[in-house]
Amino acid sequence: MTTATIAIDMDVPAGVSVDEYERIDDGHAFHVSWELPDRPRCETCKREAPLQLIEKNKFLTIRDLDLWGKPSFFAYQEVLHRCPHCGHRQSLLPPFKRRDVKYSYRFEEHVLVSLIGGTAEDVAQRLGIAAETVERIVKNRIEDAKAKQIDPQRKIERLGMDEISLRKGHKGYATILTDLTDPARPEILAVAKGRDEAAGQACLERLSPEQRAAVRCHHTDMGPAYLKACGALLPNSQSVIDRFHVAKKLGEVADALRKKTTEPTSEVCPRNNASGSALRCTTSAADPRT
Questions:
Q1: DSSP conformation class of 92
Q2: Residues 151 and 67 in one domain
Q3: H/E segment holding residue 25
Q4: 123 close to 116: Cβ distance less than 8 angstroms
Q5: Domain co-membership, 81 together with 208
Q6: Measured CA angle at 94 (ends 88, 97), to 5 deg
Q7: Neighbours of 230 (CB within 10 A)
Q8: Average pLDDT of 208-226?
């Protein structure tokens, strides 16, 4: 049997190395490692001390971005440190995930972007995760946004502002602000609870006045809330309505017009269906026969 070598091009978080690849069922697993801190900070006594490793042959797996349409995972060996001051033993957190979750930071961003135009149930079904996981990701990102500082030196020329909904029929909405300066690599800048003008302003206020003045265009839906927020805080930016929202509104108008001008009638259609039963016709309100 002939063998071939296949190279996989993928982005990895800064400071992370891919050591090994493994095909698992219907997905991909990448064994990764990262640079360990020289002086970890103890979670209990809050003091820093030289790294004291504890050997533990335990591997953990978390969800990462899909590869070639299939789910991919980061697999890594758990790293433990014992504090020489208080004796507390703690697991050192990798730089690519938050504590007590089983997915990477960039998988969180992928979930948020996927929520634009969909619900938690839609995204969960598409990605093969629970709807509660989607809701937890949104909740964590909203909490993060309260303390997150956007680099004031970051150059931002194009922004996107969208609403995301968690569950159909529920009032669980949030607003996300995305940097679209590089269309190939959109990056979420801020998340705020709600979908009103105040939520839009809360996201924009995460930017410095100089950054807001440098924005040249902003993408929103056709609702007045985001348009007002951007109009007030982005003095040099031009509004761009996304094609998705224009097409959606056009479809709603066409559907309403169809329902208004077309109504059922009790007349029997002269043409019968295949089974021989009579069909009822529909006529336009402008039909001269009515």
A1: P
A2: no
A3: none
A4: no
A5: no
A6: 115
A7: 25
A8: 92
Percent of the chain with pLDDT over 90: 51
Find the length of the chain: 290
CA nearest neighbour of 183 among 242, 137, 127, 126: 242
Q: Are 177 and 201 in contact (CB under 8 A)?
A: no
In the sheet with 53-54, reading across from the earlier edge strand, the strands are 53-54, 80-82, 89-91
Helix axes 120-127, 105-114, angle to 10 degrees: 130
Based on the domain organization, do 94 and 111 belong to the same domain? no
| Cβ–Cβ < 8 Å for 49, 40 | yes
Task: Give the list of residues 6+ apart from residue 255 with CB closer than 8 angstroms, or none.
Answer: none
Token pair recorded at residue 249: 């509104």
Q: Which amino acid is at 145?
A: A
pLDDT value, residue 6: 73
The per-residue pLDDT for range 9-53, each reduced to its tens digit, is 778 888 899 999 998 888 999 999 999 999 999 999 999 999 999
Q: For residues 65 and 149, state if they share a domain.
A: no
> How many domains in the chain?
2
Bridge partners (DSSP) listed for residue 164: 116, 174
pLDDT given at position 38: 93
**Domain of 91, in residue numbers:** 10-98
Say what percent of the chain tops pLDDT 70: 83
233: left (phi over 0), alpha (psi -120 to 50) or beta: alpha
Q: Answer for the pair 278, 272: CB distance below 8 angstroms, yes or no.
A: yes
List beta partners, residue 4: none
CATH code for the domain of 190: 3.30.420
Upper half-sphere CA count for residue 50 (Cβ side, 13 Å): 0
pLDDT in tens, 71-126: 999 999 999 999 999 999 999 999 999 999 999 999 999 998 888 877 888 899 99
- The answer on 225 and 151 residing in a single domain is yes
How far is residue 190's CA from residue 157's CA, in Å, rounded to a whole number?
Answer: 16
